[in-house]
Amino acid sequence: MDIFSFVTLFGGLAFFLYGMKLLSDSLKKTAGGRLEKLLNKATDNKFKGLTVGAVITIAIQSSSAMTVMLVGFVNSGIMQLPQTVGVIFGSDIGTTLTAWILSLAGIDSGDNILLKLLKPSCFSLVFALIGIILIMAAKKQRHKDIGSMLVGFSILMQGMTMMSSSMEPLKEMDSFVNIMTAFKNPLLGVFSGAIVTGIIQSSAAAIGILQSISMTGKLTYGMAIPLVMGANIGTCMTAILSSIGVNRDAKRVTAIHVAIKLIGTVIWLIVFYGANAIFDISFMDRPVSIVGVAAIHSVFNIANTILLFPFSKLLVKLAHIVVKETAEEQEFKLDERLMLTPSIAVGECRNMMIKMVSKAKEGLDKSMNMLLYGYNTGDFDFIKKNEEKVDGLEDILGSYLMKLTTSQQLSVEDKNRSSRILQAIGEVERVADHANYLSDSSEEIETKHLQFSDSAKEELGRVIPAVHDIYTMALDCYLSDDAAHAENIGPLRIVIGEMCDKFKSNHVERLATGACTTEQGFVFNDILYSCIRIAEHSLNIAAIAYRFKSEGAPAPDTYMHDFKQRKDSDEKKYQEYVAKYKASL
């Protein structure tokens, strides 16, 4: 072991964490509904999940990689936490195949082509090549995102390989072999196996080392059994690392994985060594062979699955106890028991939507303030986290309302109320997205030290307050069911559109005269684009209030077209807005 081994170890850790983030982010973009439906269908019961987990893990030869995928899927919202339990059990069984391959092919797997092809260090390079080709050559953004996902997975796998290879010299050290064989105490054996596996990031590698040591004839069954159990605990370190920076349900995947290993080890240690104390099992002091180590590994994981698989729901509950919800998460939670009283359930949804609206407006206010008064790191970080919360609230509300409307008989009034909320949350979420984009523009201005001309600053100083006002007015109309004032928003939307068009033309002239640079022009246009989109979504929110103006009954399907048409009665309001925001200048 030298300094370069430690550099490789921590470099591999950096690769691993970055690959995990890239994989998770890419999954969010590429998954859509297709992958979600496929996974939900494949894991709609725990027995299918068990099969899926075993088959995939056998294919990729890494339960650690399988667990990392599950963490990424749950973090991306593709899978739900209960669906992962069966997959985890299946991956525990599937990973034992590596030990059997090693026992059949010999300790030196360097010449085994099949084994090489199944190694993450091999197939991840193929994934990386495919991913890079997609990123560089694909025309569709979806294909580029798939490429990013493959590259992220490859970086993650290479990080795991680097961490394992950095510890490879340990295998050749006599002192390391002595450590592995010296612990005749089962508890010390479990601890030793867990520590070593946690360091090298692979239970398959740790089992391979044990098989190598067994060739010396110094390793007995009594030593190997706790070491194998410890190795199964140590492999959870990969899942623990993959849970850094993910949401709570993704962390619970790791908690379930750790719980399965710990509970199984404790129970089977007590059972096995209790039986040995009573019956004095004869083979305990016999030297274990390569095949024997593989058998111990398989028997432990299969027995563990038989023991704990029936208690899958309890494992999910345990994960929720270990990884508790924050006060904010509890606040943003809808009780499904309220569905028995639909009117109350819809009322709770409206209350949660008000919280969602409040958060979206807070993010928009901060992003606009940064553009007008200067970049602020604290506000930028807040906006990023706030946008994720708004997205989460939209998912919660959308799922709850869809389940409510399909599972219960709702009155006409409750149906209309539900429809209002479902239509509005999408518009509010998109406003939060554009608040996020505005914050990105503010950060770009700060990091690139861009300076707009006085004319550009003056124009932003007019359009941004107008956009702030139209969103505030739309929310007031919607939340107060004020359909009359909703019609005042259309003229302001027209004024904002005209302002943005005019300011874009003005900026082109400034570019031509050299008053502004091309780089400034891109940022300026991005800001104006978000402004016009926020105004459009605000108009849509007001239109929803307008649609239900007559005693809760929805207007005809043509309401959106009718609402957005400029009418003679709008002229007075239009001129007021032109004067207020100096739109004619």
Can you offer a commentary on this structure?
With 585 residues, the chain is mainly α. The protein has two domains: 3-324, no CATH class; 338-580, Methane Monooxygenase Hydroxylase, Chain G, domain 1 (Up-down Bundle). It contains 27 helices and no strands. The protein has helices spanning 3-30, 34-42, 46-60, 63-76, 81-94, 97-105, 113-118, 120-137, 141-166, 174-182, 186-200, 203-214, 221-234, 236-242, 248-279, 290-308, 312-322, 327-331, 342-373, 377-407, 412-447, 454-480, 483-486, 489-513, 518-547, 559-564, 571-580.
Largest sheet: none
Note the overall shape.
Answer: elongated
Structural class: mainly alpha
Query: What count of helical segments does DSSP give?
Result: 27
- How many domains, as an integer? 2
What's the order of the H and E elements? Answer: HHHHHHHHHHHHHHHHHHHHHHHHHHH
The whole-angstrom Rg is 30 Å
Number of beta-strand segments: 0
**What are the low-pLDDT stretches, counting only 5+ consecutive residues below 50?**
105-109, 550-556
User: Share of helix among residues?
Assistant: over 70%
Mean of residue pLDDT values: 79
End-to-end distance: 73 Å
- What fraction of the residues are assigned to beta strands by DSSP? under 5%
